[in-house]
Amino acid sequence: MSKSSPEQIEARREEIINACEKLYQTMSFKEITIKEIGNITSFTRTSIYNYFQTKEEIFLALLKREYTLWIASLRQSMERHEQMSKDEFAALLARSLEERPQLLKILSMNHYDMETGSRPEHLAAFKVVYGESICTVRSGLDKYFPDMSDQEKQDFIYTFFPFLFGIYPYTFVTEKQRAAMEAAGVNYVFMTIYEITYHCVKKLLH
After folding, report:
1. Are residues 189 and 103 both part of a single domain?
2. CA distance 32 to 52
3. Whole-model pTM above 0.90?
4. What is the pLDDT of residue 2?
5. pLDDT at 65
6. Could you give the 3-state DSSP secondary structure of residue 196?
7. Dmax of the chain from CA atoms?
8. What does the pLDDT read at residue 111?
9. Is the CB of residue 201 less than 8 Å from the CB of residue 89?
């Protein structure tokens, strides 16, 4: 049997990731299995193991792709603006995340399990892109707020990126969760991705 070309390998990897993404629209992380993913690809389930050994690796690849798309969006937006106020930068970050609800949804899962269930080379490839996302946000701070100290910029990064993990649960709730909050007498104001991100970034910058 002839050896697959790099293009064929990448195409199959993308097909597997796309299948996982499709299932994730209607199923939970726990419900999705390698078998379920294989059922909607054009090749056998066992072939998936030539590209990913675990479900966690597939989700990590999907998360990596989501970060890549987010980075591209941020860079394009920042290239169009030579100057920005703090409010405008907060709005830019809020809009960029509003466009990537799947990124936030995956981040809201047990990230530790997803990373420990992946081989070192997959995890390292993901960390490269994750690092690029931090550098991209930091470059925005450098460009638009040169008066901020290095410590202030570091504090922003170390607060903003952990904050991303909690956005989805605060902005997407099921009817069961909503009813439970009402039954518990919790007067909670539900916000959109844009609203919660915009207000957080404004506070961090001010």
Report:
1. yes
2. 14
3. yes
4. 52
5. 97
6. helix
7. 65
8. 86
9. yes
Number of domains in the chain: 2
Q: What DSSP state is assigned to residue 25?
A: T
Q: What is the residue range of 171's domain?
A: 55-205
Are 162 and 77 in a shared domain? yes
CA separation (Å) from 35 to 25, 79, 154, 197, 198?
A: 17, 43, 43, 37, 40
What is the DSSP track for 136-164?
A: HHHHHHHHH-TTS-HHHHHHHHHHHHHHH
| Same domain flag for 161 and 199 | yes
What CATH number is associated with residue 37? 1.10.10
Residues of the chain with pLDDT under 70: 1-2
Of the candidates 8, 134, 154, the residue with the CA atom closest to the CA atom of residue 67: 134
- If asked whether residues 90 and 112 sit together in one domain, one would say yes
Distance of alpha carbon 90 from alpha carbon 141, whole angstroms: 11
Alpha helices, DSSP H only, in the chain? 6-24, 34-39, 55-79, 86-98, 101-107, 111-116, 120-144, 150-171, 175-183, 193-205
CA-closest candidate to residue 173, choices 111, 105, 126, 124? 105
